[in-house]
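Supplementary Methods. Inverse-folding protocol.

Structures were first reduced to a discrete structure-token string of length 202. This string, shown here, constituted the complete conditioning input.
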């Protein structure tokens, strides 16, 4: 993975470090940032699924990539956790106006993360990257909720995504460890398998 630090000015790097430290000491509700001391331009955070949404009880890992023109140009944002959402592409890329036409150079990392959390509450099907999710949201809302909730239960459970905060485990190792979690009962494993089979049929 390329290191974006070499593309950023020392002034920008200092600003990013300062804001990340503020986010660690006073995190917004439902958002926990992860600092990569070797590369502060590698910004990752865990966002709790808001209550009364299909994403409730899930924890979603997101990543911001700062380009060399940051903050004049917006960063790119991705969900690393699989999610069924109109504004999230299959590769995890997030589409939101704040990161496009509405971007302003004085908007910080906290504002971006809060905007992503708000997107879980109020999706925008008019700028859908996932057309299937956007169509279901508009035409069959209950089916959309059921699909999004099922994806959340399978991919965004807290015991799957919060542990890497401690030791930034590579994705491949994380998946390998998921198969042998001592806390997961046989019954729960069977339930997840049933949900995965149901998703394949959809």
């Amino acid at each position: 993975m390329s290191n974006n630090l070499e593309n950023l000015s020392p002034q920008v790097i200092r600003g990013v470090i300062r804001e990340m430290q503020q986010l660690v000491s006073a995190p917004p509700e439902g958002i926990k940032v992860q600092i990569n001391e070797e590369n502060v331009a590698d910004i990752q955070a865990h966002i709790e699924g808001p209550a009364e949404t299909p994403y409730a009880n899930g924890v979603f890992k997101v990543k911001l990539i700062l380009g060399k023109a940051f903050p004049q140009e917006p960063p790119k944002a991705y969900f690393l956790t699989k999610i069924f959402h109109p504004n999230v592409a299959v590769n995890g890329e997030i589409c939101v106006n704040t990161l496009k036409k509405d971007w302003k150079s004085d908007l910080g990392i906290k504002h971006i993360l809060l905007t992503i959390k708000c997107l879980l509450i109020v999706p925008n099907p008019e700028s859908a990257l996932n057309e299937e999710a956007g169509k279901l949201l508009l035409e069959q809302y209950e089916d959309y909720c059921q699909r999004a909730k099922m994806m959340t239960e399978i991919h965004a459970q807290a015991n799957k995504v919060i542990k890497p905060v401690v030791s930034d485990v590579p994705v491949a190792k994380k998946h390998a460890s998921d198969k042998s979690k001592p806390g997961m009962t046989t019954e729960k494993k069977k339930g997840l398998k049933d949900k995965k089979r149901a998703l394949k049929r959809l």
